[in-house]
Amino acid sequence: xxxxxxxxxxxxxxxxxxxxxxxxxxxxxxxxxxxxxxxxxxxxxxxxxxxxxxxxxxxxxxxxxxxxxxxxxxxxxxxxxxxxxxxxxxxxxxxxxxxxxxxxxxxxx
Length: 109
Known about the structure:
Elements: E1 2-6, E2 9-16, E3 21-27, E4 32-37, H1 40-77, H2 83-94
Antiparallel strand pairs: 1-2, 2-3, 3-4
């Protein structure tokens, strides 16, 4: 079995005699990625583009799930982090200074 790897993903590569093309298949946790190419170079380009797209999409889905989870927790507890506290924390980290993570609080009304 021949394989190719890119950004932590590995594809199983086979040659399809009937269609005269190379076929690569990546089986990730919940997604099957299939790519084709007339040459190994075409297959590699298709494989890398598919993996880049998969990782971009997977990151977006993970971000959205995390955002939904945090929002639900905020609604349940009534606690959140004030933007001024978060901005200070992020600026300190960007400047390379020691930073204490902000604490969530119930908003003062």
